[in-house]
Design goal:
The chain is of the alpha+beta class. It has 12 helices and 10 strands. It has 2 domains: about 5-175, Sandwich (Jelly Rolls), CATH 2.60.120.10; about 190-294, Arc Repressor Mutant, subunit A (Orthogonal Bundle), CATH 1.10.10.60.
Length: about 290
Amino acid sequence: MDALTPLINGLNLHAKLVYSGGVCGRWLMDHNSETSVWFHLVSKGQGFVHSKRWQTPLALENGDLILFLPHAERHFLSYSAEHLPNTDEDTRMTPWLDGDAGFVCGEIELAVPRSLLWQALPAEIVIRQNQAGNVLARLIELVIDEASCQRIGSESVIERLCDSLFVLVIRYCIEKGLIREGVFAAMQDKRLAVALGLIHQQPWQPWQPWTLAELCTRAGASKSVLSEKFSALIGHSPIGYLTVWRLQIAAHWLIEPNMSVERVAERCGYESVPAFSKAFKRHFGMPPGEFRRG
């Protein structure tokens, strides 16, 4: 298995559809977040992004996709390049057919939005329909088709398609060279990709914990080469990154409503809650109970 798939699965990342339909009038969208990835797909007409990121408002046309990560500049989507309403009180939500413009909007919640994993991605990702490539472009067309027809179960279908959309966007960023460091950049190195795939897929081996020697053997690299590459691109040793990855998974488990600190500690393979809490606090700067409440 590749390194990206178990990473997405391990963190249990899922898109939540917030809006699919039309907009009319002097509309305004304010979807800024410090904890979520927001995505907007133009399914009809056009819109404009107002942000310090661009000197002039960025025009989005039918089929264009834009994502904002938590470290993005504050931004607004509006009906006009010249006018930015102060509030959204004039925004009229309509069925897709009746809208001057149409959007599919959603978010993906991140348990640790300030981690190096996400900080390495561009803060704003803009993908024009004619630049998306065959697979991503076809998926965008599917989302738009489903958004425009309003059939039974459309919202559920769109939400699941958007899960795949996020994975393809990350792949797009990797293949286009938009990521220069971090885990996603390391996936472009075949030997690092093998080691990362093993770590992401099997962070807790019940029969024998990972060792640097075992990872090197499986990846076909020497200890010095693998360690140097991990350090240069990811900022951790292979075993250090393994610990970080385990705690990332733990953080995502902690935000699930049915997971207690005790249960997370047990699933993570810690012998006791105090041992888990100590490791968690050392990495995140707060105990798991406080993180969960926050």
